Amino acid sequence: MRAVIYARYSSDNQREASIDDQIEVCRRYAEREGWDVSEVYQDRAISGSSAMRPGYQNLLIDAEAKKFDIILCEALDRIGRRLADVADLHDRLTFLGIKLVAVNVGEITPIHTAVIGMMAQHYVKDLGEKTKRGQLGRALKGKLPGGKAYGYDVLPADADGAGHRRINPTEAAIVQRIFEDYASGKSPRVIARTLNTEGIAGPEGRPWGDTTIRGQVDRGTGILNNTLYIGQLSWNRCSYVKDPRTGKRVARVNPRQDWEIVEVPDLRLIDDELWDAVKTRQNETTHTMSRDDAGNALNRVHRRQFLLSGLLTCGICGGGYTIVGKDRYGCATRRIKGTCDNERTIKRQEIEARVLDGLKQRLVTSDLVETFVSAFHEEINRLSAEQSGTRTAKEKELGKITRDLDRLVNAITAGVDPLTLKDRFTKLEARKADLETTLAAPEPHAVRLHPNLPKLYAEKVAGLETALNDPAIMSEAAEILRSMIDRIELHPRSNAPGLDALIYGDLAQILGICDDEGQIQEHPAVVAAGCQLSVVAG
Known about the structure:
- By secondary structure, the protein is an alpha/beta fold.
- It has helices at 17-33, 54-64, 76-79, 83-96, 110-140, 169-183, 188-197, 210-214, 272-289, 332-336, 348-362, 366-413, 418-440, 453-467, 474-483, 507-511, 519-522, 524-529, and strands spanning 2-9, 36-44, 70-73, 99-102, 106-107, 152-154, 165-167, 232-235, 238-242, 249-253, 260-263, 312-314, 321-325, 328-331, 346-347, 485-492, 499-506, 532-537.
- The protein is built from 18 helices and 18 strands.
- Helix 12 (366-413) packs antiparallel against helix 13 (418-440) and helix 14 (453-467) packs across helix 15.
């Protein structure tokens, strides 16, 4: 039996060595059962309350491919702590004919799934409530239940517990300066750039950003919204709910009556007059930004999307290139933080034209296609040889299983008690059905590459370029064009003005626009042979 191990620990209350302990326990169990462990899947410091875990997702993918017969774990709560996730996994594995086994209880049945899964989910909920109750107790005593806030030092825990803070004079002076600069009219972006230019480290030693300073008013985040600076500890302003689809925490602002406000005058850094001045300017700025020239409310959700939005990156710092003026792209890191030396900008229309020209004229050349075709054929030959050997082995196994089943039938006919052969008979039948399904599947279809692929490709891109000017289909054409590009790096030219644009794309995806039936991207040989490529545009 082919077995795999899944191990996980969460950062809440376990340690790194927990993974190794789980794997060792599972290996010993598999050894006693005579199972062959072929793979170990693991997730380190990740909560089991979400299924969006890299190791777990890889496990699911390989299960669908039937790469093993048994999944082994130390306990069912290692698989997950949501009843819905555990039940869904059990149903899926049952359909695939894969067993789920926990060292502490043995093979998992629907009863185990219901009872243990419910207990695991209750544990997570109960732990969250206990944690929140403990935080409330600390907040009411004027102790910070969360992490370190900029401007303060964390003091060691005493007989009264942890959460004590002390003003850090150096950081407190920076906080005072930020408030004064903002109240005097400076923007968070200018303040951040000035601090970075002067070499003043931000929270946790990171560079300053405008979001670090302005934060979100309703959630109380950011330097300008931290009520601790006026001697008030605000707790429970937000609740964090985990999205079951993505596993990411989503912040939700709690009703004002649920907030806990505790006076901590010893931690005050800002006087009320300065705080009020900042709040007044924030309100005025918010109103101005959310209105057009006529005073009408703007819908800022529908921001203008350009052809290359999200694809341009700075070749110096790796940050994004974004619109920094009217139709001009510039390095966002330099603009926001001032920590990048790349000061060159480029007109939107120029870079779009250069990228289109690069895609059309330079990206797919005869030499490049020849290299791709060579790699494609090599991969076809390798896959054919591999599949031929695998198919032969499966055909031999199927023949042996058929003979074994015939012998079992003969034994029953000769008078052997059928009940004693039931398990063996069931397993052979299941494996036979598996093999027959695999052998009946059609082999990968042949893909013939167009003999004049570069010319055909250029014509397709030219068609997309024309479509970009047609309002009826420009959105669809833009999406097709964007799908061909992974990223575009903009590098300042060393001995000349301007920027070099290096386009990175996936050849399989790019050649796919020449293939109306989608064969190129889907064929396994192309998946293996399809290479990343790049070209300088303009």
